[in-house]
Amino acid sequence: MAVANEPASSPLATAPAPGRRWGEVIIESIIKIAGVSVIFIVGFIFLFLLWEGLPAILDIPLRQLFGPQWYPIEEHFGLLPLLFGSLLVTVVAVLIALPLGITTAIYLGEIAPPWLRDILKPIIEILAGIPSIVLGFLGWIALAPLIQTMGAPTGLTAFTGALILAYMALPTIISIAEDALYAVPREYRDGALAIGATQWQTIWRVVVPAARSGMLIAVMLGIGRAIGETMAVLMVTGNAANIPAFSENWLFSPVRTMTATIAAEMGEVAQGSTHYHVLYAIGLLLFLITLAINSLAARLIGVSGGRRSRPGGSL
Amino acid sequence: MDIIAVKNLYFTYADGGEALRNINLAIPRNQIFVLFGPSRAGKSTLMRLFNRLSDLSENATHQGNVLIDGNDVFEPGTDVYDLRRRISMVFAVPTPLPGSIYDNLTYGLRMSGMRDRAEMNRRVERSLQQAALWDEVKDRLKTSAFALSGGQKQRLCLARSLALEPDVILLDNPTSGLDPLSTATVEESLYELKRRYTIVMVPHSVQQAARVADQAAFMLDGEVIEVDSADKLFIHPKSKRTEDYITGRFG
Q1: Residues 145-164 of chain B whose Cβ lies under 8 A from any Cβ of chain A
Q2: Residue A39 belongs to what domain range?
Q3: Phi first, then psi: what are they for A150, rounded to 5°?
Q4: Which of A181, A189, A193, A195 to mutate to test the interface with B (most CBs of B within 10 A)?
Q5: Which residue of A191, A209, A314 is in closest CB contact with B95?
Q6: Fewest CB within 10 A of the end CB: N or C in chain B?
Q7: Which residue of A has its CA nearest to B109?
Q8: How far is CA A179 from CA A90, A110, A219, A224, A260, in A?
Q9: Nearest by CB to B97, which of A191, A198, A315?
Q10: How would residue A75 be classed by pLDDT, with cut points 50, 70 and 90?
Q11: Least CA distance to A190: which residue of chain B?
Q12: Which CATH number do you get for residue B10?
């Protein structure tokens, strides 16, 4: 045994044994395959959507496809009401969630005493894990009646959907924005306080600008969560695929989002029919919108990220 | 009257660690006052009490008085933000803030409510000249402060404090991490600055302390062992422990 062990202590033994090298190669390839497969999966999803959605785009005149009438039974496939529904609900949801999320993150990261932060942060992270259908119930049972008593003809409106979506996007926004604030070096705070900044001035003029790329990621992921959400909005937006007449209470009219349309109609559509292909075309449109948002985020982050990476580089 | 007077000051951190014990000091105007001693002697802790940056250490407690121009900084109702503009601190690690060089210099002014552009420009130029940085950056005031070299960043932080036109500048090891040439530049600007300002400084080394100090205090384990004019303290220290430290027998 002593003889067998001897080579291990000789200088030549620092080269890896053949067995280990094979292990190395196998593990590396598994990791590489896992990484590359993501690209393929996304590519296949896109191709599949294109394959199933393209017939609709070719069959239906574009003028009708982007027209205001969605009556699938009468062969009217106008996507405009659905686009409008998704856009309205998402934009309002983001407008609600953004200020709330950012201020909560600032409170958690900068102002709250440590013991309170230790209680609040896990609770907020649990919120992120609540299934959307449960939030849909909550909106249906608790929120909708409340909105109806406020004077809307029905409680199932675009605004109800936006509120639920805002609530769903909040944990994501808070959690990631708080991480971004946490990553701001302590020296920035000291530097600002040492020249007589108040706590609020330090946060607003120094810490938040320093964390802005992370904050932007938070916002983008929040938007992504909101636009892709299906079940909750299906339950609480009233499911009316039309563009409400523009009036003071158009926010309180029923709408229907793209995601909800797919979920509601996919089950009863004849496979291979125009209607079927149109639903895939909607999926394709959603895919492209999400892609656009993500690449916009990546570009914005690239710009500010480059600026931020410089202090590390020059140190 | 001395600009800073410390009387029977004790300071204890939240974990019960006693950082300062019975400190008594009088710091006169327009001098360079050096606090030196081995690490963990309490030098930085003491400086942070002068402008109440010590407030940031949660649950720390203190006893005794820190008087600035005869007013106790711990008096309720003290405007701590105004205090920090008058007693401005520069840290060992330079802390440029995100933004341009110009932004860095005017942060403090804008946060104190100044809106006068011409006055801000005047202060930017003068503070950069006082910190011996003007010639190097005058053509790129709008570029990012992060692009400066280490020594330039340190002088930028000094200039940022000077732009506030404070009464006292607290320098916590301002030449740590600087090459000898940059160190000499900073030290030279200190001689100029003391005509206008009072400077309290934790030096990089005993040699630097001896070079720049008008008066010096030797600190050890949270206590001031000896205070004297630099001429006396570095040549004929009264305390054995001071002598041992200066001559390099410990520390």
Answers
A1: 146-150, 157, 160-161, 164
A2: 18-59
A3: -80, 0
A4: A195
A5: A191
A6: N
A7: A195
A8: 24, 11, 13, 19, 32
A9: A191
A10: confident
A11: B95
A12: 3.40.50.300
**Residue A200 shares a structural domain with residue A171:** yes
Q: Report yes or no on A194 lying in a domain.
A: yes
User: Tens digits of per-residue pLDDT, B48-88?
Assistant: 999 998 888 878 888 999 999 989 999 888 899 999 999 99
Alpha-carbon torsion angle A265, A266, A269, A274, nearest 10 = 100
Residue A274 and residue A158 in one domain: yes
Q: Residues B100-124: what's their mean pLDDT? A: 92
**pTM of the full structure:** 0.73
Say how many CB pairs under 8 Å bridge A and B.
79
* Within a domain: B251: no
Q: Do B111 and A194 touch (CB under 8 A)?
A: no
Residues 6+ apart with CB under 8 A from B27: B2, B3, B4, B5, B33, B198, B200, B215
Q: What is the ipTM of this complex?
A: 0.79
Chain A nearest CA to B110, separation (Å): 10
A295 min Cα distance to partner chain B (Å) = 25
Chain B residues in contact with A311 (beta carbon < 8 A): 96, 146
Q: Is B181 on the interface with A (CB under 8 A)?
A: no
**Domain boundary, last residue among A5, A28, A59:** A59
Q: Say how far residue B151 (Cα) sits from the centre of its chain.
A: 17
Whether residue A193 has pLDDT greater than 50:
yes
Residues A213, A107 share a domain: yes
Cβ-Cβ contacts under 8 Å, A209 against chain B: 98-99
In a domain, B173, yes or no: yes
Give contacts of A 179-238 with B, CB under 8 A.
Answer: 187-188, 190-198, 201, 205-206, 209-210
Instruction: Confirm whether B76 is domain-assigned.
Output: yes
- Give yes or no for a contact between B88 and B53, defined as CB atoms under 8 angstroms apart: no
Task: Look at A194 and B89 and tell me if their CB atoms are within 8 Å.
Answer: yes
CA distance A217 to chain B (A): 19
CA distances from B59 to A103, A189, B54, B56, B62 (A): 26, 19, 10, 9, 10
Chain A residues touching residue B56 (CB < 8 angstroms): 190, 193
Residue B105 CA to residue B164 CA, distance in Å, equals: 9
Residues A69, A137: Cα–Cα separation, whole Å: 29
- Closest CB from A187, A198, A310 relative to B91: A187
Q: Are residues A210 and A224 in the same domain?
A: yes
pLDDT band at A190 (very low <50, low <70, confident <90, very high): confident
The burial of A239, by beta-carbon neighbours within 10 Å (0-12 exposed, 13-18 middle, 19 or more buried), is given as middle
Number of domain units in chain B: 1
Mean pLDDT of chain B: 90
Which one is predicted more confidently, A251 or B168? Answer: B168
Give the pLDDT of residue A253: 83
Q: Which residue has the higher pLDDT, A218 or A153?
A: A218
What's residue A302's pLDDT? Answer: 66
